[in-house]
Amino acid sequence: MQINKLKPNDSGVARKGVSIRELRAALNGRVIAPADDSYEAARSVFYGGIDKRPAVIVRAADATEVSYVVSLARESGVELAVRSGGHSMAGHSVSEGGIVLDLSQLRGLQIDAEKRTAWAETGLTAGEYTSAAAAYGLATGFGDTASVGIGGITLGGGVGYLTRKYGLTIDDLLAADVVTADGQLLHTDAENHPDLFWALRGGGGNFGVATRFQYRLHPVDTVMGGMLILPATPEVVAGFIAAAEAASEELSTIANVMNAPPMPFLPAEVHGKLIVMAMMVYAGNVEAGQRAVAPFRALATPLADMLRPMQYPEMYPPEDNSYHPTAVGHTLFMDHVDQATAETIVRYIQESDAPMRVVQLRVLGGAMSRVPVEATAFAHRHARIMANVAAFYTGLEDKAKRQAWVEDFAAALSQGNNRAYVNFLGEEGEGRVRAAYPGETWGRLRAIKAHYDPTNLFRLNQNIPPAG
Ligand SMILES: Cc1cc2nc3c(=O)[nH]c(=O)nc-3n(C[C@H](O)[C@H](O)[C@H](O)COP(=O)(O)OP(=O)(O)OC[C@H]3O[C@@H](n4cnc5c(N)ncnc54)[C@H](O)[C@@H]3O)c2cc1C
Fold it and tell me: What is the pLDDT averaged over residues 132-148?
């Protein structure tokens, strides 16, 4: 390939390097330039308030084209953004003036129901994979949102409705095909490039572009699950966490303490009041699931009780593609939520006047905590609760105010150590990226980065600088 510096291209945008016409001639995938009608939609990502204008967006048709684009970025020195589902909170899936490598056309999925494994290309979303696997009564755990890409969520760890029963998404990752910075397509698993395979399981997009993953599947068919909404008092919040910790591992919960949105199934007088909006899955026998959710139902008279036996993919309701929230957040891990902590939570949510403010509490443990800390790059194996504080904002001035509230609230919840989950980080600086990789993990990741990406080509991410 003969691409050194960018040069002016035929769309009239003064860039150095390969022209858009040359790119179109070289690739089968779609090449979208600023002059194209589809450019505005193609550069937009899940979060609002991210307004970057890439020189070009390439929807690669296959792994060979991924390699072509990686080499183009390397040889031209242009910034490279890698996008699977586009849900990066830090805006990492779009570049200002660079190349967006959009994987959304990589949609292959082969399910081996007998062996309970699946090969999935990384343009698939969690919802698409989950629906397809459910046709066999099988599932791999992802997060709480269908439109999240399997690319980003897997490389960061993956915390969701099956975490306590089956572990993180990476605990079901058996192999990955990755295009590294030199343009090579490597097959990685426990035997092949085990160092790289280790780093991919939590290290994010630092080590290459994953084109496909092989996952383990579990029998998950009808589950007891859905949404339970309770009034948020300190007693209910503390009681909810205590019940979630006491529950068997089949039960994974996500409790959102928040102001009630005007949801049609909530009485009008509840709108704006403090609620615990809980999402729950009991991945096991339905009768046992009914018993498992009883203590939560008993915490207070539910404002809405939509827990019921359901097909697992029903946990992913349809989404509105035009929804682009503007939000700030802070993620942390906690060891306990006792009565005093619950009082702090309720007070902070009560006192804010943000259009939407929330702390999301996920009780962890179970299968995820039994994987040895050093087995994967995700090392917060023994954290008991993940908390994500977030507030919506309107406009830049409001953003600063909401950010200050988020930081203040997170500091009040902090239990003495700086720990973070990489997939919920925004643009927060190296100290916070390090917080995702405790102990020896950081040094080990930096050494592997130096081996596979010594020039830090993959830097538009929660960046791990190469050692040395
Ligand atoms: C509404 C919402 C709900 C969420 N819920 C959960 C949840 O329940 N559990 C959870 O664990 N996380 C959750 N997340 C966080 C989510 O896992 C991360 O934002 C994740 O990075 C999104 O992946 P993506 O592919 O959609 O995003 P993208 O923006 O496309 O990717 C994010 C970054 O990951 C890297 N990347 C993505 N794909 C590849 C690839 N194939 N190869 C190399 N690098 C790649 C790139 O560095 C990219 O910048 C949620 C996020 C949102 C916005």
Answer: 98
Task: Please work out whether the CB of residue 76 comes within 6 Å of at least one atom of ligand 1.
Answer: no
Ligand 1 lined by 98 (C-beta under 6 Å): no
**Sequence-distant (≥ 6) Cβ neighbours of residue 289 within 8 angstroms:** 223, 224, 225, 250, 251, 282, 309
Residue whose CA lies nearest to ligand 1 atom number 43: 209
Q: What is the token pair recorded at 230?
A: 């309770």
**Ligand 1 centroid vs 189 CA: distance in angstroms?**
21
Atom 34 in ligand 1: residue holding the nearest Cα: 152
Note the pLDDT tens digit of each residue in 207-229: 999 999 999 999 999 999 999 99
375: its two tokens: 């087995």
Among 406, 317, 163, CA closest to 153: 163
Residue 11 has a pLDDT of 40
Tell whether the model's pLDDT for residue 410 goes beyond 50.
yes
Position 10 scores a pLDDT of 40
CB-based contact 208:179 (threshold 8 Å): yes
Q: Determine the Cα–Cα distance for residues 410 and 331; give it in Å rounded to an integer.
A: 8
| Nearest CA, atom 46, ligand 1 | 205
Beta strand pairing status for 138-139 and 251-259?
unpaired
Question: Rounded to an integer, what distance in angstroms lies between the CA atom of residue 157 and that of residue 234?
Answer: 31
Q: Which ligand 1 atom lies nearest to the CA of residue 178?
A: 42
